[in-house]
Structures are given as structure tokens and as C-alpha cells.
Amino acid sequence: MNVFCYVESPIGRLMLTTDGTALTGLYMNLYRNKPSKLPDLGDDWIQNATIDPLPAAARQLKEYFAGKRREFDLPLRMAGTEFQQRVWRELTKIPFGETRSYGQLAKRLNNPNGSRAVGLANGRNPIAIIVPCHRVIGADGSLTGFGGGIDRKEWLLSHEGLPRTRELALGDPAKSGVAA
Are residue 29 and residue 111 in the same domain, yes or no? Predict the structure, then answer.
């Protein structure tokens, strides 16, 4: 089953997708020349905001954008390689209001030279915001690539209490378990 719905948000319209059991996608930039990540909504897709877990996902996103939620509690199913899955699981461990660099994530995955691979996996994250790829920044604190656009990344980080700037300090290395 391939089901989708749209959710309005402060950063624009979002598309949520599900297989009827788990959330499988959260997409933004719906009107920018159809991003390649966006699923091809063929004849096997139906639009229905009442199919689980879409109502819970829409509610939790509304709470997040209202400043009433810091963590999501939803069933997720993300198609990707084993390495991508490991990166995406690590993203869910970055606390609300904190950031990590690609290098810090690579070290946590026991692949200290794998920051580029981590960046590629981060860029293929199919469930943005909920799996917080926006919390990953460059080693120098710069807001590097984000599928939703740097302006959205900056907005999300600012929403989580970080300074509204294109340059940020990395999260506390002691909390991340990684030396600076």
C-alpha cells in the first residue's frame, strides 16, 4: 500500500508517505522542479490522511512546530543500504537543539574517515525533520547542504533554540561521546 498526504507547516507544505504500517517518507520542496527524492506518485498511490500512521505523524509535526514536542514517537520504515540505516539511526540520537558534524557521526560509526559517506547517507534520509538530518553541520560550524534548502535548515535549527546564523558551534563533544 502506498499512501500519502500533505501537511502545512511554517516551512512550507510537506508530503508524508506510508505503507499503511510505518511512515516511509517526509518530503519538502514539493514545487522545486520535483526533487529526485520525491516518490513517483503513480496509479498505485492514494491520497488519504486517515491511514496510520499519517494522523499521528501530522499531529506530532504540528506539536513540534508549535514548540510542544522535542522527540517523535512514530513507526518508521526507511529503505536504504545497511550503512545508510546506521547513519539514520545515529541521526535520531542527536538531541533537540544540538548539532553534530559529519566527522563526529563518522567517528560514532567507527569510520573516522567516512565523513563524506555520512554526508551522502544524510542527504538520502527519506524522513527529514523526524530523523533530524538538519542537525548535522560542517566541521567548521557551517550549515552545509540540506535537501530542504539551507533557509529551511537554518529555520529548523533556530526553532530548536540555536542561534539564527549560517555558522553554528558544534554540540558538546562530551555529550556526543566523540572527542572534538
Answer: no
